[in-house]
Amino acid sequence: MKQFIVLSLIIFSSCSTISITNTEQNYILKDENKSKFYLIEFIRKAQSENKLGETPMLIIDGEPTFYYNKENVKKIQIKKSDIKMIEIVESKDCVKLFGAACKYGLIRIKTY
Q1: How many Cα atoms sit within 13 Å of 65 on the Cβ side?
Q2: Is the dihedral of CA 89, 95, 99, 105 positive or negative?
């Protein structure tokens, strides 16, 4: 029994988890491992630098994929390894292009 407890503690402590909000679930990539949180970590870093707001718009290969008031959100169908270019457009610049849907900033991703 003692060995089971020790083994359980080792396994539990070696698991790296990331606590995500309901909104951040919309930014999970298709990867199976911790790479699926790459975009969330990217967004959090940009938010800490005041480049993005709480719910940035996401455009993948020219297709608006997620924004704060979009009702039907599909899971992201790309993996981290698919990303060829990722760009941040701050809210003051992208609102001119996309209106209120972009008020928290924009992340453009190209996979080709």
Answers
A1: 20
A2: positive
**Chain segment 57-73, per-residue pLDDT in tens:** 999 999 988 888 887 88
Has residue 11 got a pLDDT over 60?
no
Domain residue spans of the chain: 18-110
Nearest residue to 41 (alpha-carbon basis) of 69, 80, 15: 80
CA atoms of 84 and 110, how far apart (whole Å): 6
Task: For residue 29, give Cα distances in angstroms to 67, 97, 100.
Answer: 16, 26, 25
60, HSE (Cβ side, Cα atoms, 13 Å): 16
pTM of the model: 0.80
pLDDT digits (tens, 9 = 90+) for 81-92: 999 999 999 888
